[in-house]
Amino acid sequence: MKKVAISNIAWPQEHNREALALCKDLGFTGIEIAPAKTFVDWPQRIPDVHGFNKIIVEHGFSVVALQAIIFGVEGVELFVSDDTRSRLADELRKVASLAESLGAHACVYGAPRSRDPGLLCFEAAREIAVEFFSSIAPIFESKGTCLAFEANDASYGCRFITRTAEAIDLVRRVARPGIRVQIDTGTIFIGNEDTAVIQNAVEFAGHVHISEPYLRPLGSANSDHVAMSAALVAANYDGWISVEMRETDEWRRNIERAAQLIKAIYRTAPDHI
Q1: pLDDT tens-digit profile of 1-18?
Q2: Tally of domains in the chain
Q3: Do 29 and 5 form a contact (C-beta atoms < 8 A)?
Q4: What is the largest CA-CA distance in the chain?
Q5: CATH no. for residue 136?
Q6: How many other β-carbons are positioned within 10 Å of the β-carbon of residue 133?
Q7: Which of 88, 99, 154, 155 is closest to 122 using CA atoms?
Q8: How much is the pTM?
């Protein structure tokens, strides 16, 4: 794999050009974006991405993925009603179209609170989820992208698909290329999951986040990234990996430290990073 990206949730939007220049100097080759942070009035107003794409290309990047894709959107719960599922489908159609216009290969679906099953048992919730994602998969396929389903630990307030193995099972049941697994190292660390789950997930993977628990700056949590890197290599993963960490006042130093960690540990990263 020679594809290393970083999410723009790591820096203030008002410093976007400075951050992009820094990321370029450090050797990153792709950018992941959160639409609500990147485009004014998203999703109420569909953005003209021409200007944004020009900036990205000027810095030598491509947009590889979208995340936080329904952040701030109300009434899009997966399990509440047919109406909320319909609104969720409408929002995901917008996301798929945005991904197509940006050339992004994956759209990360986390949103733990929007998939609270309420009083439904796990099996009943899974049946609804399989039906819903099977219906939405062709939309992402037609746009040349995928919806990457991310397991979220219960500590994030998630009550449906909290383990990577459960995400794999859901995606296997949908059995469409438009719905894939999001591998997230932070989730694996929090849940003390065996790294063998990565090898099981790669067959179904749409994207990979290199992250710490609770989106702390990369390298600040003493997490065993060596084991994660080894598992990705053993599974012959050849897609993008993307650094995901929240913005702090030390965002410049955080980006620099993340690049150092990727270069030192993730043997799948290109030599120049």
Answers
A1: 369 999 999 999 999 999
A2: 1
A3: yes
A4: 51
A5: 3.20.20.150
A6: 22
A7: 154
A8: 0.95
Residue 270 lies in a domain: no
Evaluate whether residue 271 is within a structural domain: no
Q: What's the per-residue H, E or C state across 47-95?
A: CCCHHHHHHHHHCCCEEEEECCCCCCCCCCCCCCCHHHHHHHHHHHHHH
Cα–Cα nearest to 92, from 21, 20, 141: 141
CA dihedral 188, 192, 194, 200 (to 10 degrees): -30
Give the separation between CA 10 and CA 140, rounded to whole angstroms: 26
Beta bridge partners of 207: 182
Per-residue pLDDT, 48: 86
For the stretch 30-54, pLDDT in tens is 999 999 999 999 999 888 899 999 9
Q: Is residue 124 a part of any domain in this protein?
A: yes
Give residue for tokens 């193995």. Answer: 165
What are the Cα distances from residue 248, in Å, to 65, 155, 245, 255?
22, 21, 9, 11
Write out the residue range of the structural domain in which residue 21 sits: 4-265
Q: Give the model's pLDDT for residue 269.
A: 54
Find the helix or strand (DSSP H, E) in which 209 lies. Answer: strand 205-210
CA contacts within 13 A on the Cβ side of 62: 12
What is the Cα–Cα distance from 168 to 42, expressed in whole angstroms? Answer: 30
Whether 152 is in a domain gets the answer yes
Q: Give yes or no for residue 272 having a pLDDT over 80.
A: no
pLDDT tens sequence across 54-87: 999 999 999 999 999 999 999 999 999 999 999 9
Q: Which of 133, 50, 122 is nearest to 92 (CA)?
A: 133
Residue 45 tokens, joined: 């107003």
Pair 241, 4: CB distance under 8 Å: yes
Q: Are the C-beta atoms of 146 and 101 separated by less than 8 Å? A: no
